[in-house]
Amino acid sequence: MSSDHPHLPFSSLPLDPSGPPGNAWGRFGPTDQLGMLNLLTPPVVAAAAKEIVSGVRISLDWPLNKPSYPSYGRDPLIHHIKQRGGPDRVVNDDILTFNTQSSTQWDGFRHYGRGVLIDYCSWAAKSSLTLAPLSSTVIPFSHLQRAIADQNVSFRHGDILFIRSGFTAAYNALSPSEKLALSKRPSADFMGVEPTEEVLEWLWESQFAAVAGDAPAFECSPVGRGKGKADAQPPIVLHQWLLGGWGMPIGEMFDLEDLAEHCRECGRWSFFLSSVPLKASRPSVHYSYS
């Protein structure tokens, strides 16, 4: 941890009394644009590079056309091939139109650092626990802690946390008609981390630079059902605390299947992560309210 930004205990939040609950506004200065990514200092990234041992590279991207039928009425990927050549030559332009809330995505910025995988799906199977990734069920914090202990995982400040719930594997096993029916449900019900004050405190005290998973929302979906220690508190939404309050990016719908298999074979759950989202400048943004 940089001496310029010493760790503050969870009990010290919120930092800005005019901001939302639990905010850390101002921790990295009044003009900060990076939030918890400030923890990815050059020494932290250099230390993460030491995770490169075998040279094996694994993509964590789910295909752009997944899910085939997005929830919330979002548009699926459109791949259009435009023929631009003349009669004597073939020149094709590939034009992709897609919603950035589909497939693998970061609610945040670009990242280079040490990733750590918690294979909750495999741990639950070994513990004879039934999982339902396509329903609104929670990953209890107590279970998550047991999975971490059984994997013998330890964390460092600035780590990027990944949690495998089994969502992508469950979705890929569906038939086309089942995938369509899933998108037509009244609400987008999917498994995710339970949104509680205990989870928030753990995430903060662990000083993760970012969190991610294979689930559509990381936290249990639909969001807005979390509970604090006092019943009178409003529902806890991890997205609001992490993104708006702390500047901690959230990754969703990462394909963790091959990574989990490789980690199991190697007996290592940490790895060097390189992830760079699309770079779109502000002038190219067009808003639609239709």
Strand order of the largest sheet: 3-9-8-6-4-10
Largest sheet: 6 strands, mixed
Mean pLDDT across all amino acids:
86
Task: Count the beta strands.
Answer: 10
Overall, the morphology is: globular
Order of helices and strands: HEEEEHEHEHHEHEHEHE
- N-C termini distance: 46 Å
Q: Quote the beta fraction.
A: 15-25%
> Poorly predicted ranges (pLDDT <50, ≥5 residues)?
none
Query: What percent of the residues sit in helical stretches (DSSP H or I)?
Result: 10-25%
Measured on Cα atoms, how large is the radius of gyration? Answer: 20 Å
* Annotation field: number of helices: 8
Helix-strand category: alpha/beta
Topology:
Layout lengths: L41 H8 L28 E6 L8 E6 L7 E3 L3 E8 L1 H7 L11 E2 L1 H11 L8 E4 L3 H6 L3 H8 L8 E2 L3 H10 L3 E4 L24 H9 L3 E3 L4 H10 L3 E6 L15
Parallel strand pairs: 4-6, 5-7, 6-8, 8-9
Antiparallel strand pairs: 1-2, 3-9, 4-10
Describe this protein's structure.
- With 290 residues, the protein is of the alpha/beta class.
- Helices cover 24% and strands 15% of the residues.
- The protein is built from 8 helices and 10 strands.
- It has helices at 42-49, 120-126, 141-151, 167-172, 176-183, 197-206, 238-246, 257-266, and strands at residues 78-83, 92-97, 105-107, 111-118, 138-139, 160-163, 192-193, 210-213, 250-252, 270-275.
- The strands form 3 sheets. The chain has a 6-stranded mixed sheet with strand order 3-9-8-6-4-10. It has a two-stranded antiparallel ribbon with strand order 1-2. A two-stranded parallel ribbon has the order 5-7.
- The longest helix is centred in the middle third of the chain and has 11 residues, at 141-151.
- The radius of gyration is 20 Å and the shape is globular.
- The protein starts with 41 loop residues before the first helix and ends in a 15-residue tail after the last strand.
